[in-house]
Amino acid sequence: MLDGVIVDYYGTPTPLLQAASIKVPEAALLVLEPWDKSMVGPIEKAIRNADLGLNPASDGKVIRVPVPVLTEERRKDLVKKAHAMAEESRTAIRQVRRDGNDKIKKLLKNHEISEDDEKRAEAEIQKLTDKHIDEVASVLKHKEQDIMAV
Questions:
Q1: Does residue 104 contact residue 128 with C-beta atoms inside 8 Å?
Q2: By percentage, how much of the chain surpasses pLDDT 70?
Q3: Of 74, 63, 72, the residue nearest 30 (C-alpha)
Q4: Residues 79-128: pLDDT tens digits?
């Protein structure tokens, strides 16, 4: 959830995970403990500016970030993000298939494999591609159910 938060760490843009430890004492609470106590303010500001809908509060040593209950609208937004991530995964899988098929065609062109081997390899690559795309669809379906469950 906080992966995309970038903190201004003494003038250097730094991922939050490199500036503080994150603990989860309760399901709806994150506690961030900065490695450098003077970074409490910049970390708090970075979380607010990240537009995550979170409102951090600090006591000077640690930052507490209560995670609000998801609304119907927020759940739908998260489902849309999950669909976008699944599409990125499917695109990456297809890119790997394309790279594999290109290598097979190159081997055939260089007469390192026979045409039968090419057909078998392409069929195997397609089978693996279908398997992984189905796995992405399955994970997406379960994640969508988890997100929409109240």
A1: no
A2: 99
A3: 63
A4: 998 999 999 999 999 999 999 999 999 999 999 999 999 999 999 999 99
3-state secondary structure 61-89: CCEEEECCCCCHHHHHHHHHHHHHHHHHH
Of 53, 82, 68, 72, the residue nearest 148 (C-alpha): 72
Instruction: Name the token pair of 122.
Output: 């392409």
β-sheet with 63-66: strand ranges across: 20-26, 29-34, 63-66, 57-58
**Tokens standing for residue 59:** 């006591």
User: What stretch of H or E contains 18?
Assistant: none
CA distance 31 to 62: 7
Residue 114 DSSP one-character state = -
Would the pTM count as exceeding 0.70?
no
